[in-house]
Write a structure and sequence with these properties.
Number of helices: 4
Helix content: 40-55%
Strand order of the largest sheet: 1-2
Radius of gyration: 13 Å
Largest sheet: 2 strands, antiparallel
Structural class: alpha+beta
Number of domains: 1
Number of strands: 2
CATH architecture: Orthogonal Bundle
CATH class: Mainly Alpha
């Protein structure tokens, strides 16, 4: 996998999420646009994060936590990838 010049959507998502910082799907989407000048939709990013075996192949596992927006009462998930040692 090329972290600095990822060729696929999966590689872009892994490159953004592997720094240990928790981000929402929208945050991941914005960071992909800034770093790589590519547009990946939030449903597509979510699908890449659900591909456990593909992420595991690169040596990472997904971690997430949920918060609730006090105004809208809707759940918001934050994701990161952690390196497997």
């Amino acid at each position: 996998m090329q972290i600095f010049n990822p060729r696929t959507q999966r590689e872009r998502v892994i490159a953004i999420c592997c720094d240990g910082q928790y981000r929402t799907l929208e945050g991941i989407q914005k960071e992909i646009k800034v770093r790589f000048n590519q547009f990946d939709s939030t449903p597509a990013i979510s699908a890449r994060l659900r591909e456990k075996s593909q992420i595991f192949q690169f040596g990472y596992i997904k971690d997430k936590y949920r918060t609730v927006d006090p105004k809208t009462k809707k759940a918001c998930y934050h994701y990161t990838l952690k390196k497997i040692y």
